# Entry
Amino acid sequence: MRGRSSAGRTLAFIKKNYFLYILLAPALILTLIFKYVPMYGAVIAFKDFSPIKGILGSEWVGLKHFEKFIASPNFDVIFMNTLKLSFFGLIFSFPVPILLALMLNQVRKAAVKKNIQLFLYAPNFISVVVIVGMLFIFLSPTGPINQLVIWMTGSPLMFMSQPEYFRWIYILSDIWQGAGWASIIYVAALANVDPELHNAASLDGANLLQRIRHIDLPTIRPIMAIVFILAAGGIMSIGFEKAYLMQTSMNLPTSEIIATYVYKVGLQSGDYAYSAAVGLFNSVINVILLVTVNFIVRKLNEGEGLY
# Structure
């Protein structure tokens, strides 16, 4: 009886707000078609896929492709490269948008603040291809940065061919391109802070750092937690495009990651089943990390997490 009453209330709510559901329908349909339907193709990770036999006609092989990937001599290098690039990228890039937002929040002149924001947001609209092209030009042996290095040390540094430089170039260029845009959400949250709180704290003798610590940071803490969980959930999902474009034969020991390996094995070698297994393995690791980080953050953040 209670269940029917609840169902009745739900139907009444949907009937009352049917126009909102109509607006939501296109997004749901597109998500279903382009995000969930393609998941069916992941089945080939458990089959010896043959284009002639098709997905349904190919033979089941269980976990054969997963075992092959884990047992391969490339596994340790590729897995650790992906993990290190993602982990250090998250650690170094996560605080930067928060710092930018806190500094922007202290700029009182609206015109100056808008110009600074425009300067910070602009790199986000530059194509990854152009960004990598700029990196190759600026960091080439005859580029402006190496001219400074030569003036200081007498010899250039091979930034794009030495494996030890790849991670730092990738992470720092990522921060330059995305930190300003990522700060928008924190700037919006800080705009909701009541100025009276800052005025009252100033009258009580609180300096700038104390006001940031006790007023601004607690305000954006829930957003920081959600952003961190989402970023940690995608820790293994490094963008393929940039890593592949920055890759040279000399920096492969650190630039070969799961995304580039899947592309080479799947599309260049035609081993679709093995490629799907590697990609699925990467997704499973991401889900495990997402659940783990969300659990830890909920424990540390007074029960507040992504779910």
Notes: The longest helix spans residues 272-300. The two ends are 30 Å apart (CA to CA). The first strand starts at residue 47 and ends at 48.
